[in-house]
Amino acid sequence: MPHEDTRAARAAVAGLVLLLIVVAYYLLHAGQGTSPFFDEWDWITRRRGMSADSLLGPHNGHLSVVPVLMYKALLQVAGLDDYWVFRTVLLSLHLGCVLLVFLLARGRVGTVGGAFAAGFVAVLGSAGDDLLWAFQIGFLVGVLFGLGALLALERESVRGDIAAAVLLALSLGSASVGAAFAIAAAVELALHPRRKERWWVLAAPLVLYGTWYLGYGEGQMKRENLGVTPSYAADSGAAAAGGIVGLSLEWGRLLLVGLTAIVGARIWRADRLTPRLVALAAAPAALWVLTGLSRAQNNEPEAPRYIYCGAILLVLLVCELLRGRVVPRLQAAAVLGLVLVFAAVGNANTIDGISGFLRFQAKDMRARLGALELVGRDRVPLDLQFSPVNSPQLTAGRTLYAEESFGRIGLTPAQLLKVPQAQGLAADDVMKLTGSIAFAPAAEPPTPRGAPPIDDAVTGGTVRDRGACLVTRAQSPDTRLDVRLPDGADLLITAQGPTGVLARRFASAFGTEPIAEIPAGGTVRLDTRSDVSTAPWHLQFASAGNLKVCRAGP
């Protein structure tokens, strides 16, 4: 470790601890109101039991046995309704990665430099997905084990090598980011003078990974990505470089070019060239190339979830380039502190955007699950895709069973009555998908009976009661009639002109997609199913002609 002032080192450690406390509070607060999202539901609903398939089956090409086991344990301990426990585990993994970066960097640039290196990782909000979405436990635990393996390799002892081999195996068993650390270890061991004695450190985890791949692996690399991978990899690297200091992709390109030039010159001159330096140059480049070969078709090199690992490797690379040097004066520390504050503020915008998105998705899912539970398991098609846009892989049967097993997170009937418009539309969407409101042609118009539906409003015409019916007389080509009827009631609608029908129950305003189109001269029957909610159905008929809307049920 470079020689440095003891008081400065203590101040740096104290400052890092204070920063981590602030970051922990901020991230926990930013993640409030979130719940399982998208791929996360696959681990909750599809990986039941402890079979080999549930543990070893790939997820988007990743071997995810470690995070799958973690999720199984968390679901048993916390369930779905205590999602904060999942987020706390994710935060703990992030703080663990920060600590390992500090330990790795301190041996190169001293305690003060190591604290700044760890600080930039702590405020890495550009990788906000990995800091707020609990599903990214897989990525972060892979990075944590990978960093631990690099630290263990530095001991150059049998115990250290055994630890490195185990940690590399665990990193590869967590997510494909483990490949970056395996490549770093391979390069470092290949350049080490005792490489013939230490070859097994990498061979052991690779044999385990290869065995899994032969049984379960799925090739993710796509031939069509070959041509675009270089530009994709460059943009991924630029996003990581810029994200470290809270800057955009354009600034990241400049930073990456400068860093590449420095590393290239160092390698060309073989000046203070260490095995770790070459390893840390190769690992992020390989990570971005491999990601491009398998993911370039998605055209998202700036995706926050891909920034975390690359940014950490770049931070360690800079520390390796500065090996043996310490922050010389208070002025230099002040400048680094200002840059760190700038990075934290810039990256906070990304955190805020991602947390807002995840909260919106959580509200949408809770409303949809509340509507499913309201309809009742016995009346819901178990293979129904009840969230076809945001979570198309989910089926009603699997999700309701998960709630029965791990805790209910859907809104109660009372809560559904108070939701804002977006959640109301989501709940209404599920009610329509489950057939709680449905239209069918009326072959023989039944006899209207009961009190007429409640007339809420009419525009472009007039309306009057006629027995069990409301009859409108159109005075414009766009006559609109709003009616209200209790859940469980039925209607008969006869339209003289083409008529579109909008329906809502929990939303405060109508959406834009008609639930039915009635042809001119047509008669249809509307059926609703009763449930425990007191919310009535609201219907709006937009017609080019006269309408007759009759009560045909209770």
From TrEMBL:
Keyword Iron: no
Domain of life: Bacteria
Keyword tags: Membrane, Transmembrane, Transmembrane helix
KW Glycoprotein (keyword) present: no
Membrane-crossing residue ranges in chain numbering: 12-28, 84-104, 109-127, 133-153, 165-187, 199-216, 274-294, 306-326, 332-358
Protein name according to UniProt: Glycosyltransferase RgtA/B/C/D-like domain-containing protein
Gene source species: Paraconexibacter sp. AEG42_29
Lineage, top ranks: Bacteria, Bacillati, Actinomycetota, Thermoleophilia, Solirubrobacterales
